[in-house]
Amino acid sequence: MNFDTRKIPNIISVACLFCCLLVFLPSYSFAQDNLKSELIQSGPMVGYSEMKEIGLWVQTKKAAKVQIAYRPTMNLSTGETISGTAFQLTEPIETNALTAFVAKPVLPYLEHSTKYEYKVIIDGKEIPFEYNLKCQTQVLWKWRTDPPKIKFAFGSCTYVNEKNDDRAGDGYGSEYEIFTSIYKENIDFMVWGGDNTYLREPDWGSRSGIMHRYTHTRSLPEMQPLLGTVHNYATWDDHDFGPNDSDYTFWNKDITTEAFNLFWSNQNTNQIEGGNDIVSVFSWGDAQFFMLDNRTFRQSQDYEAENKDYLGEKQVQWLIESLASSHATFKFVVMGAQVLNESAIFENYATYSEERKRLLDAIAEQNIEGVIFLTGDRHHSVITKMERENNYPLYDFTSSSLTAGSSSRYKDENPTALKDSFIAKKHNYAVIEIEGKRKSRVLKITYKDKDGKDLYSLAIKEEDLRK
């Protein structure tokens, strides 16, 4: 075999170039990773979604200028790919220590029914991520088509260990890989049902302690892909509000309210007149979500009095009227503690029986259809079904816990619970899917373990939630 020796110099040049790339690429990758670790504390997180606007969130490690570059990639109504569109850039936001270096950019004037990709720009440098950052505007469907399919996850009780601040012994949090499993579900959004972080004794006495705990939990590596690729909505319970079983007497509630609003991107908190609350509302397709605040107006469970406030008179009235005016097929009421459990133990709504009765009676008297409760707190999961005379049954989907320690329910408690739905001693989350034609929608809830394995499922037809 003959070789053309004239080509040898070119071959040597190519080989040298290839060798240089082998040396350069690892160092380039290291530099990119180093840039991310140097500038990003946590996030980005995708927050609320509307038809013309999306809220985002990111936390830097030091004072910096944050921008988001974004462009459309798909029309969700037709499934058609959108290509060749230039990136748009948000105005820079300067982060600072006073607000925990948090930036909350907004993507404005968007097209409805559209999926977007986005990039994070810090001090003019694009930050690399090993997963694709994406978000979407809501689909315009009413008076045009059947409602879109909806798929979301729900869970509560996220404890992330920090040895110096935790109690002695084994860490209370574990199996953080559950967030990887939720990320792989390909959901539209995640509903966080309270105890999304656990304030400890060193935390709740000061603003810096509270901001530290919110930052520490949000920085969990396993959580980041979920935060950056699906929309996230949240309410709170006692542990992200203050000490265990805390109520409106908690002295630093203004600071925890500030921290909650800083670290989540709900669009419209503070719905109750005269209250510095975190009540919010959002819709997705033909479902509407009422995110309640069971702490700001709550009287002490240890205070002996009749007709004590749990949600408070104004919030209860607001909820009743909001439900009555809603045209959503499914009306999800999201609250930290169980609503339909009849057992007046722990922090179940039954421990405030008069207010609870007022709410449930009003749902019946106002002929409000399609109500479902989403609750957490109890460190076990269960579906509670309340049969009602001459009316449709009410359901309470309790999903707990994501990473905090699991526990069993008390013997003989919650007599209307679906016995085969009870899940204890196992970290879990719920996936809820809604699909079907208008007027004949079907909701399916599936509880899953940390690895995404199905544990229990239940399907409910739209017609089963009508009087």
Into which percent range does the helicity of residues fall? Answer: 10-25%
The percentage of residues in β strands lies in: 25-35%
Q: What number of domains?
A: 2
Molecular shape: globular
Q: Structural class of the helices, strands and pairings? A: alpha+beta
How would you sum up the major sheet? 6 strands, antiparallel
Rounded Rg: 24 Å
Query: What is the mean predicted local confidence, pLDDT?
Result: 94
SSE topology string: HEEEEEEEEEEEHEHHEHHEEHEHEEEEEE
Rounded to the nearest angstrom, the distance between the terminal CA atoms is 88 Å
Highest CATH level, the class of the largest domain: Alpha Beta
In the CATH hierarchy, the third-tier topology of the largest domain is known as: Purple Acid Phosphatase, chain A, domain 2
How many β-strand runs? 22
Instruction: Output the CATH homologous superfamily of the largest domain.
Output: Alkaline phosphatase D (PhoD)
Low-pLDDT ranges: 1-15
CATH architecture of the largest domain: 4-Layer Sandwich
Please tally the helical runs, counting DSSP H or I stretches of 4 or more residues: 8
Tags for this model:
467 residues, alpha+beta, Immunoglobulin-like, six-stranded mixed β-sheet
Q: Can you describe this structure?
A:
- Strands 3, 4, 5, 8, 9 and 10 form a six-stranded antiparallel β-sheet that branches. The chain has a six-stranded mixed β-sheet with strand order 13-12-11-20-21-22. Strands 14-15-16-17-19-18 form a six-stranded mixed β-sheet, covered by helices on one side.
- The relative contact order is 0.11.
- The model is unreliable at 1-15 (pLDDT under 50).
- The protein has eight helices and 22 strands.
- Helix content is 21%, strand content 27%.
- It is of the alpha+beta class.
